[in-house]
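fyi for ur records
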Amino acid sequence: MDVLNSSQETVVGLAVDEAIRRLAYLKENARPFLIAAVQDGAGIHPRALCTAHRKNGEQLSRIELKSIGIRANGFMSRAAFAEITPKGLVEPLAAHEKTLLRAFFTFSRWRSLWNDALNLKQMEISTDAISWTYDMLPPVCERCRTLNGEKVAPLEAHILPPEDCECETANYGLRMKIDWMADVY
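which gave:
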């Protein structure tokens, strides 16, 4: 993926599609909610966004909630329930949140690189003295653990989680590092 020349809409779509495909907790019909949540949910935790989504609309009955393992005072709209796959029904209250978190971390990696590159360009700073490193937040799978601290060029960075990533949310970032002494050498 050409990270720095991709539009926000493109990256959000790729992030949501990857999260739906890899986790398999939600069906494709959850895509519009997830895209809107990633694009418009800045500053709001995914748990709050997903809770509001599950509260919106006609609710499942207490008997229906109990049958899927949700307490009687829990919230699950019929529309939100229709978006959950059998795999997602293992933890129905977390299916939307975990999928959204994975998509949001992917979008955040892109946004971080894009903003860094834009700022460097505006300040007319050479990228020769700049590197980015993977910054892992535990828990991570073995594949992501090997990336921790590894230097990477922006166009080679794993914005989407690596194919062999087994993390549920792929909660790693990219951190810019500047070698302030680069011009001295």
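The longest helix spans residues 95-122. thats all i got for now
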